[in-house]
Amino acid sequence: MKIVLLNNTLHDGQLYEAGEQDVEDEAAEVMLASGVAYEAGELSPAEQEAEAAAAAKAAAEAADEAIRREAAEAAEKHAPGAVVELSELLDGNIDSVLEMLPTLTDDELQALLVLEQGGKTRKGVIDGIAKEQAERAG
Asked: In the chain, how many H helices and how many E strands?
């Protein structure tokens, strides 16, 4: 059986050098099971880990995009037509967002809150919106 040894390996008194080797099936099974080798033609453990990490990153990015899309849809219900402008406002830093809160309508504030909660989730922005809403509620 062809296997790739990750490092020099001693098995049953015989030294096998790292790299691709043609090894008896029984010895190969032991080496594969112990994690010192992988089958020739397969991905190495490092390649498998990199592939899994890339898949996890892609899944996380897709989930983030879905959350942003849902937040935009929810915000559109509160302030139709304002979502693009509010998204641009949220691109700014916390101070610039807080500075603009008094100029927004109640619906725009609620839409801004939904967008922030579905995006960066900055505590300072969320708390600032809640404070502005509370002040308006009296």
From this structure: 6, 5
